[in-house]
Design a protein that fits this description.
The complex is a heterodimer of chains A (about 110) and B (about 230). Chain A is built from two helices and six strands, in the order H-E-H-E-E-E-E-E. By secondary structure, chain A is α+β, with helices and mostly antiparallel strands. In chain A, helix 1 packs across helix 2. The mean pLDDT of chain A is about 90. Chain B has one domain: P-loop containing nucleotide triphosphate hydrolases (Rossmann fold), CATH 3.40.50. Chain B is built from eight helices and eight strands. A seven-stranded parallel sheet of chain B has the order 4-3-5-2-6-7-8, with helices on both faces. In chain B, helix 3 links the parallel strand 3 and strand 4. The chains are: A alpha+beta (about 110), B alpha/beta (about 230). Chains A and B meet through helix 1 and strand 6 of A and strand 1, helix 1 and helix 6 of B.
């Protein structure tokens, strides 16, 4: 449960970006949260709205894009979403595959108004 | 309304501090290990036994993180090496700034090993780089063999898995072969040690692992160019 620390890091980053652009108002921030990032989107949304309330950035919307856990097979090059079946390649059955996505904890974009 | 792409890490500020720490550790030849597990898996006990086995002149220090109390630092200070508590006051993980603050007044030139005991938690510490050379995940037998599948991120990011409390294997339904298989399905090639802090089994291998890791750290550090910061 470190969603509040993550929410606060997002706000800190938004504030830094906003300072670089005087005269504009940030209305939305977009983040990408991977399934392996250890961050629960719902808890993040909740923590974020609690933190932003009453600050100079209020109202500021948070848009979360949830990214699935993906693996890539080094043998047949298939990239696949990991579900309950495990990490083996579903096409060629190679047991060892490589991480191809899902550890994201990224700031994707800001939406600003003049 | 305009959309401005950012494409940066949410934790880029933490990563920046961690990079600074990593550079300093490299400059002073300090191998930094970040020890992570659930609460009660045996991190502090493993550290007690580790410190107890080191010669008096060893250049080692420990930082230990907890939400409250300095009990762990007091347990670890008995061995005569520098031990400091980071009390996070609610946070479920250590971050790079906490580590930097805790190290601010330490004589780094007198160290060649720093072990950080993270807050007991298998989720959040995996997101925060502390500038360590390696993360180590500790999993104790009573916790169940499916932990690597339930908490894949930390097993993916850790170089070594220490399976602790193996003296309890006869009393719990823990299939150690399956635990190893699960860990390696998440992290192919992951190093795995089996240890009991009660009987001492596997501790020689653990001490050898640290010694070997110090050597590879020195060799890796010598290869990298100095960044000059």
């Amino acid at each position: 449960m470190h969603e509040l620390s993550i929410a606060s890091a997002i706000l800190e980053a938004v504030r830094k970006e906003a300072e670089k652009r005087p005269g504009v108002r940030v209305s939305r921030v977009g983040v990408r949260i991977g399934a392996l990032s250890g961050v629960e989107p719902e808890a993040l949304s909740f923590g974020f709205s609690a933190l932003v309330q009453g600050t100079d950035l209020d109202p500021l919307a948070l848009e979360i894009e949830a990214v699935p856990w993906r693996q890539r097979c080094p043998q047949c090059e298939l990239t696949f979403d990991v579900k309950d079946e495990g990490l083996a390649c579903p096409r060629c059955a190679r047991p060892e595959t490589l991480l191809a996505g899902g550890d994201e904890l990224d700031l994707a974009y800001l939406e600003v108004e003049e | 309304m305009d959309r401005i792409p950012l494409e940066k890490k949410v934790l880029s500020e933490n990563d920046r501090v961690a990079a600074r720490l990593r550079e300093r550790f490299r400059e002073h030849g300090i191998l930094c290990l970040n020890l992570i597990s659930s609460p009660g898996a045996g991190k502090t006990t493993l550290l007690e036994l580790t410190l107890g086995r080191l010669p008096k002149e060893a250049r080692v220090a420990v930082l230990t993180g907890d939400i409250q109390t300095d009990n762990d630092a007091r347990r670890l200070a008995r061995f005569g090496f520098p031990a400091r508590q980071i009390t996070t006051g609610g946070a479920c993980h250590l971050d790079a700034r906490m580590v930097e603050r805790a190290l601010a007044d330490w004589q780094r030139e007198n160290l060649d090993l720093l072990i950080i005991e993270n807050v007991g938690n298998l989720v959040c510490p995996s997101s925060y780089d502390l500038g360590e050379a390696a993360k180590i995940v500790l999993l104790s037998v009573p916790e169940g063999e499916d932990k690597p599948l339930k908490y894949p991120a930390i097993f993916l990011k850790s170089e070594l898995l220490v399976l602790n409390k193996i003296d309890l294997l006869p009393y719990v339904s823990f299939d150690i072969a399956r635990a190893r298989e699960h860990a390696r399905s998440i992290h192919p090639g992951m190093e795995i040690l089996e240890v009991s802090c009660t009987t001492g089994e596997g501790l020689d291998q653990w001490m050898q692992w640290i010694k070997r890791r110090k050597e590879t750290f020195k060799a890796e550090s010598a290869k990298l160019p100095t960044l000059g910061c």
